Amino acid sequence: MKFRAHILGAAAGGGLPQWNCGCKNCNLARAGKIPSQTQSSVAFSANGADWTLLNASPDIRVQLERSSALHPTGLRESPLKSVLLTNGDIDHIAGLLTLREQQPFVLFATSEIHKFLDDNPVFAALNPDVVRRQTVELGTPVEIAPGLTAELFAVPGKVPLYLEGETVQTDLEGEQTVGVHLQAAGQNVYYIPGCSTFRADLRARLQGAELVFFDGTLWQDDEMVRAGLSQKTGLRMGHMSMSGPEGSIAAFDGLDVRRKVYVHMNNTNPILRPDSDQRREAEVAGWTIAQDGMEIVL
C-alpha cells in the first residue's frame, strides 16, 4: 500500500485567475504565462482505489473530471468514499452542492462545522439517506477511507466570513478550524490549509512528519493592502504569511519534516510566478509550491 495525495486545487478562494481580479498574477494566468489554479482541495488514498477529499471547493466538478483516479468505475459507482471538511469557509464547502447527485459517501466534520451546514437549508440537497454525516471529535482517529485514518486537531483561526460579527478573533482554537493528521501504512501526513499562528504545540506535533501541506495564502501580511485590493491583512483573514520572522518559512526552519508543500495560495501571492524571487526563496528553504494536478506518492 502507498499513500497518495492528489492536489485537485492549489489556490485560495477565488482561484487563479479570480473572475473579477485584474492583479498581475491573474492577468498573467489569463494570458497563459503562468499556470491557472482552481480552489483548494486535496484527494488522499491509501490504496490508489478508494479516495477521500479534504474540502470540497466550488471547482470540484472540473477537478474531479481532470483526475482520472476519481472517475466513475461503473454506471453510478465512484471511488470517492468520503469528504472531510477543515472549516466552514465557502471555498471549502460550496462544492458539496455539486456532490448532491445521489452518490453515497460519508461527510466528516466537527460538530461545529456540521452546524454551519445544518443552519443553511440549501445543504439539505445532500440527501441524508445517501450522504451520511459523521461527527468527528478532536483527537479521536477515524477511518475516512480503507486503510486511511484521520485525527483532527484545533489550529488558530476564525469563524467563516459569513458568520463574522463586529469583533473578529483570528486566533480562536476550537472546532471551527482544524488541521488533519492522516496516517496510512505507518506514514504520517498533515494537512493544514488555514492557520493564523504557529504555536509551540503545533511545532511539536509536526516533528518527524513525512509530509506536511500548509497554509500558503499570502507571501506577506499586508500583500493585498499593498496591491490596492483589500484593507484586510492576512492575519485578519485568519492566515499567517510565509515571509518574515513570524512567517511560516521561519516557523518551519529546523523542523524535522521530510517534505513541505504550500497549498491554498491567494491569487496575489508572488510565489505563483515560477520566476519570482519569492518562489526561489521558498524553494531554497525546502518548500514545494503546490499546483493543480500534482501528485505525491509516499
Describe the structure in your own words:
With 298 residues, this protein is of the alpha/beta class. It has one domain (4-297): Metallo-beta-lactamase, Chain A. The chain is built from 8 helices and 14 strands. It has helices at residues 24-30, 60-66, 90-93, 111-118, 200-206, 223-226, 248-252, 277-284, and strands spanning 4-9, 41-45, 51-54, 80-84, 105-109, 131-135, 142-145, 148-154, 178-184, 187-192, 211-215, 259-263, 287-289, 295-297. The radius of gyration is 18 Å and the shape is globular. The model has no long low-confidence stretch (mean pLDDT 95).
The name CATH uses for the topology is Metallo-beta-lactamase, Chain A
Structural class: alpha/beta
Question: What percent strand?
Answer: 15-25%
Oligomer: single chain
Largest sheet: 7 strands, mixed
Q: Going across the major beta sheet, what is the strand order? A: 6-5-4-3-2-1-14
Q: Mean of the pLDDT scores?
A: 95
Tell me the number of structural domains.
1
Percent helix among the residues?
10-25%
Shape: globular
Order of helices and strands: EHEEHEHEHEEEEEHEHHEHEE
E-strand count: 14
What Rg, in angstroms, do the CA atoms define? 18 Å
Notable characteristics:
seven-stranded mixed β-sheet; Metallo-beta-lactamase, Chain A; 8 helices; single chain; 23% strand; 298 residues; alpha/beta
What is this entry, summarized?
It is built from eight helices and 14 strands.
